[in-house]
Automatic annotation (TrEMBL):
<protein>
    <submittedName>
        <fullName>Transcription antitermination factor NusB</fullName>
    </submittedName>
</protein>
<keyword id="KW-0694">RNA-binding</keyword>
<feature type="binding site">
    <location>
        <position position="338"/>
    </location>
    <ligand>
        <name>S-adenosyl-L-methionine</name>
    </ligand>
</feature>
<feature type="binding site">
    <location>
        <begin position="269"/>
        <end position="275"/>
    </location>
    <ligand>
        <name>S-adenosyl-L-methionine</name>
    </ligand>
</feature>
<comment type="similarity">
    <text>Belongs to the class I-like SAM-binding methyltransferase superfamily. RsmB/NOP family.</text>
</comment>
<dbReference type="InterPro" id="IPR049560">
    <property type="entry name" value="MeTrfase_RsmB-F_NOP2_cat"/>
</dbReference>
<dbReference type="Pfam" id="PF01029">
    <property type="entry name" value="NusB"/>
</dbReference>
<dbReference type="GO" id="GO:0003723">
    <property type="term" value="F:RNA binding"/>
</dbReference>
<keyword id="KW-0489">Methyltransferase</keyword>
<feature type="active site" description="Nucleophile">
    <location>
        <position position="391"/>
    </location>
</feature>
<dbReference type="GO" id="GO:0001510">
    <property type="term" value="P:RNA methylation"/>
</dbReference>
<dbReference type="InterPro" id="IPR035926">
    <property type="entry name" value="NusB-like_sf"/>
</dbReference>
<dbReference type="InterPro" id="IPR023267">
    <property type="entry name" value="RCMT"/>
</dbReference>
<feature type="domain" description="SAM-dependent MTase RsmB/NOP-type">
    <location>
        <begin position="161"/>
        <end position="462"/>
    </location>
</feature>
<keyword id="KW-0949">S-adenosyl-L-methionine</keyword>
<dbReference type="InterPro" id="IPR029063">
    <property type="entry name" value="SAM-dependent_MTases_sf"/>
</dbReference>
<dbReference type="Pfam" id="PF01189">
    <property type="entry name" value="Methyltr_RsmB-F"/>
</dbReference>
Length: 463
């Protein structure tokens, strides 16, 4: 028998196989689980219950990968990096089932051993079997206590227990402390580890919410059940999946003041197009003109498809946003800068991102973010407004960028009250404390608002 031999008496159930395929793609080719998993579920023809199981297995394993690797290291007496990657993913999948689900341990062990056998042969299967039976002998509490004893600091211990890298924990603590809410860190980390429900947006003037209204966004709703993608398709995109925080920050710009017919708007970093479609619907209702820009051709294609739902002629550019905005000085009345960022505000939706991102990513992104915001200010007419948005609460990407650009532009711009703008569009009051530096920006949080951690700052060019 060769290295990919199989045993006929062990059959890997489809939900586990789908989850494993996703884990392998994330590990080997930096795939995005939230994009790949739905395709694999459809390809396997999974029903609702099996699809839910595959989703829990894939997302749960990815979410707590760091913690599971520490447990595997102890059970295998070798570092996770020394284990063949396919075998390591099979071990991670089994450890999640053994320690965090109601799946019977013998089923988790046997099927993950079979996955290891299929990927790497009988010797790897024997190794996986020994490791997993060692894990299954002790309780989750025992393993967490044991792993905690290996921590070299309180932050490392918290990182192992909450499955967050230490640098992310420290960034979150600083962002919360800037609002005088550092004591909320544990609640935030816990919220990051809870799978969020699906939130929908009905494009205003083109569709009506079809389920339970969201607590804050006037265009948001939640389905009681069923396939959201089927609803998106049947509505021809006029109803779409979109986090409530994303809806709120877009509406804060479009509804900041009454729209004057003929206003010119720009979505500077538009891909993949969710906020662009919402802006387009708002522009259509108010008589405004909208342009969009996305430098990556594939993502620009997604923007165009998103805009198909709105009967408005929107030109989609494919240029570097910095040069495009700078070349159109004084042309626009409202500009959205949904800046490329680390995405640390959406870890509950993209669980693999917490292990993929590094502090160096922040250092690389901040100059780009500042340049985009600076160019957007150049592009607006006197009296025009720029909304600077990130799906990250990291202070360097949020308040730090705004502060740097404001210092560079001097008295040319003034900061508007983003918290008041969000309150004005929200259906219910939002808990938005004033930052300790006295600035007027706003930060949404998963644990406090049930949204992704979206940041919003509003800057107006003085007339």
């Amino acid at each position: 028998m060769n290295g990919r031999e199989r045993r006929a008496d062990v059959r890997v159930q489809l939900p586990r196989r789908v989850a494993f395929v996703v884990l392998r793609a994330v590990s080997s080719s930096d795939a995005y689980a939230n994009l790949l998993l739905p395709r694999e579920i459809r390809r396997a023809g999974l029903g609702a219950a099996d699809a839910a199981l595959a989703t829990e297995l894939a997302y749960g394993t990815l979410r707590r990968r760091g913690t599971y690797d520490a447990i595997i290291r102890m059970a295998a007496d070798r570092d996770a990096s020394a284990i063949d990657p396919p075998v390591l993913d099979a071990l991670r999948l089994a450890v999640h089932q053994i320690l965090a689900t109601r799946v019977a341990s013998h089923a988790a062990v046997n099927e993950s051993v079979q996955l290891a056998r299929e990927e790497a042969g009988s010797q790897a299967a024997g190794f996986a079997n020994a490791v997993l039976r060692r894990v299954a002998r002790d309780t989750p509490g025992d393993w967490m206590a044991r792993v905690g004893e290996t921590a070299r600091s309180e932050d490392e211990r918290l990182g192992l227990s909450s499955a967050h890298p230490v640098w992310v924990i420290r960034a979150f603590r600083r962002a919360l402390a800037a609002e005088g809410r550092a004591e909320e860190l544990a609640s935030l980390l816990e919220a990051d580890n809870v799978a969020p429900g699906v939130t929908m947006a009905a494009l205003p003037g083109l569709a009506a919410p079809e389920g339970e209204s969201t607590p804050h966004s006037p265009v948001g709703f939640r389905l009681g059940g069923g396939d959201p993608e089927r609803l998106v398709r049947s509505s021809e995109g006029r109803v779409r999946v979109q986090d409530e925080g994303s809806q709120l920050v877009a509406l804060a710009l479009t509804r900041l003041s009454p729209v004057a017919p003929g206003e010119r708007w720009l979505d500077l970093c538009a891909g993949p197009g969710g906020k662009t479609a919402l802006l387009a619907a708002e522009a259509l209702a108010g008589g405004a003109l909208l342009e969009a820009n996305e430098v990556a051709p594939a993502r620009a294609g997604l923007v165009r498809r998103a805009l198909d739902a709105v009967p408005l002629d929107v030109e989609v550019h494919e240029e570097d946003g910095r040069s495009l905005a700078a070349d159109r000085a004084g042309r626009y009345d409202r500009v959205l800068v949904d800046a490329p960022c680390t995405g640390l505000g959406a870890l509950r939706r993209r669980p693999e991102a917490r292990w993929r991102k590094q502090p160096s990513d922040v250092a690389d992104l901040v100059p780009v973010q500042a340049a985009l915001l600076d160019a957007a200010i150049t592009a607006i007419a006197p009296g025009g407004v720029v909304a600077y948005v990130t799906c990250s609460p990291h202070l360097a990407e949020t308040a730090g960028v705004v502060r740097e650009v404001r210092e560079r532009r001097g008295d040319e711009v003034e900061e508007l009250d983003a918290r008041a703008a969000l309150q004005a569009v929200s259906l219910t009051p939002l808990d938005l404390p004033e930052p300790s530096d006295g600035s007027l920006h706003a930060q949404l949080w998963p644990h406090r608002h049930g949204t992704d951690a979206m940041f919003l700052a509003l800057l107006r060019k003085r007339a």
